Amino acid sequence: MNQQQIAEEQKVVENITKTVDPAAKWYVIHIQTSYEQRVKQALEQRVKSLGVEDKIFDVVIPTREIVVVKKGKKTKTTEKVFPGYILIRMILNDDSWLVVRTTEGVTGFVGAGLKPTPISEREVDAIMKFVTQEQPKFKTKFSVGEAVKITEGPFADFLGTVEALDEQRGKVKVLVSIFDRETPVELDFLQVTKL
Questions:
Q1: Where in the chain are the domains?
Q2: What homologous superfamily does CATH list for 20-132?
C-alpha cells in the first residue's frame, strides 16, 4: 500500500465520526482474498458512475501498520486486519445492494441467511481504534519451542530454543545452554535467526 492509499484510509477513519444519514449502517462484505484494494476501487468507481453516492458512503479496508523482521532487518508494512473482508457504510435498499453485490470480486454480504446484517457502531469503533493504535506491532516467523541461532551480542553463534515471544516489544526469550544449564536470554528479533 503506498502513501496515497494510507492517507486515503486515514481520511476515511477521520470521516467515520462525521454525520451521515442516520439510516446508514455498517455492513461487512466478503470478497476474494488479496483483491481488497481492487474491489474497493471498483466499488468506489461504480458508486460514482451509477449515482448512488447518497446511499453508499464509505468503503474501508481495515489495515494497520506493523513492523516485520525479514532477513535481519525491520521494515514497516501494512497488514490487513480482516483479509477477505471490507467494511461498507450504506443505506441498504435494492439499488445499493445490487451495486455492491454485482461488483466484480464481491462474493456476498456477511449476515444471517440471505439478508445482510449490519454491525453495531460499537464494533466499528473497536475496529477503528484497533487499526489506529499508535504502537506498531512486530510480526515474526518464530514459534515457541523452535531452535534458533543467536547472530548478535555476547551470545553470538550460540544455539538455543525459543521459550517465549513478545511481539509488542519485538523481543524473544531464548533458552541458551551455558555451563550445561538452560539460561533464558531476552533478545531482539533481529538478534536471532532460524536454523
A1: 20-132, 146-194
A2: NusG, N-terminal domain (3.30.70.940)
Q: Which residue has the cell 457504510?
A: 89
- Please report, in tens digits, the pLDDT of each residue of the chain (195 residues total): 556 555 565 555 555 545 567 889 999 999 988 899 999 999 999 999 998 999 999 999 988 877 776 666 777 778 888 899 999 999 999 889 999 999 999 998 988 777 789 998 888 888 888 877 755 566 667 888 999 988 888 888 889 999 998 877 778 899 988 777 888 888 888 888 888
Sheet holding 192-194, edge to edge: 181-188, 171-178, 159-166, 147-150, 192-194
CATH topology (fold) of 146-194: SH3 type barrels. (2.30.30)
